[in-house]
Amino acid sequence: MPDKILISIVGPTAIGKTTLSIQLAKYFNSEIISADSRQFFKEMQIGTAAPTSDELAAAKHHFIHHKSIEDNYNVGTFEKEALQTLQLLFESNDVLIMVGGSGLYVNAVVKGLDDFPEIDKKIREDLNNKLETKGLIYLQEQLKKLDLKAYNSISIDNPHRVIRALEICLGSGKTYTSFLNKGKLERNFKTISIGLTAEREIIYNRINQRVNMMMNEGLLDEVKKLLPYKHLNALNTVGYKELFKYLEGEWTLEFAISEIKKNTRRFAKRQLTWFKKNEQTLWFDYKTPLETIFLSVKKQIDNNELA
Fold first, then answer.
1. Are 225 and 49 in contact (CB under 8 A)?
2. CATH of the domain at 134
3. Site described as Interaction with substrate tRNA, positions (predicted)?
């Protein structure tokens, strides 16, 4: 076997990544790193489809519910902590598993973050104020004028991503995209990227079913408890922001649930667009027998066909 190997499992939400990660962890007698930025927060269990207690017991997981929604936690901190954890785990494991649908967090571990300049905090404060007073569309239009490439490539309906790109443009005088893919460090492990997918209609149906299941499991009660914290960035996410509108009387429950399904479907589409950029990813239909995936991974390892 070659040097240390990280198997990265990617794909749209509700496709079966957690199940596959656990099976691979068992196959290689290994442990799992989560790169799902929503599952970091211990207060967000149901709405993030975090692994169940049985799933957590089936294989050792890291970076699941290790933070609070009130903690200031970002992708840069995650990259540092994840690499430290990998280094420690690789001392006793030749193969480790990483799973998650947050493309930026996956890339942070596999490739490293882009080297952005330090930006005056007042710029972000001003942008946050404009978000509150003028709305997200105003910021989107501003980014479109300053950096069209960023406007067309980032998650444009995510206020955090839009503000991040804008603050780089405004604070540096250069485009956000001009800082991408420069000066990244080599990793001391090799990566195999595995993608799970399905026909779009199947993905959307699975998403709709998952949302219904979440509601049956008590998502509304979970969101009610978090209503006093709705201003926190961690809660500005699908499944929570829609139910906040219901709880505050803006929407009916039926409409809020339909919006969760719609926004999750949109999120899944963006996930696929992001992950398809990596031409080295091995894509499998979500119904592919586990043994077929195991053999394909093992063949890559044995033949040293690694990124």
1. no
2. 1.10.20.140
3. 102, 124
Range of the domain at 134: 121-179
| pLDDT tens string 201-237 | 999 999 999 999 999 999 999 999 999 999 998 999 9
List the one residue out of 30, 49, 31 whose CA is nearest residue 39. Answer: 49
| pLDDT at residue number 302 | 84
What is the C-alpha to C-alpha distance for residues 187 and 181, in angstroms, rounded to an integer?
15
Is 11 known to sit in a ligand binding site? Answer: yes
| CA dist., res. 252 & res. 238, Å (int) | 16
Is residue 156 very low, low, confident or very high in pLDDT (cuts 50, 70, 90)? confident
- Give which of 56, 100, 58 is closest to 79, Cα–Cα: 100
* CA atoms lying within 13 Å on the CB side of residue 167: 22
d(CA 267, CA 221): 23
In angstroms, the CA 112 to CA 105 distance is 9
The response to whether 197 counts as a known ligand-binding position is no
Tokens of 23: 């099976």
Task: Judge if 174 and 188 occupy the same domain.
Answer: no
Is 0.85 surpassed by the pTM of this model?
Answer: no
Domain count, the chain: 2
According to the annotation, is 69 in a ligand binding site? no
Please check if 16 is assigned to a binding site: yes
The rounded distance, in Å, linking the Cα atoms of 27 and 264 is 31
Is 249 marked as a binding-site residue?
A: no
pLDDT at residue 166, rounded to an integer? 95
Asked whether residue 2 is marked as a ligand-binding residue, the answer is no
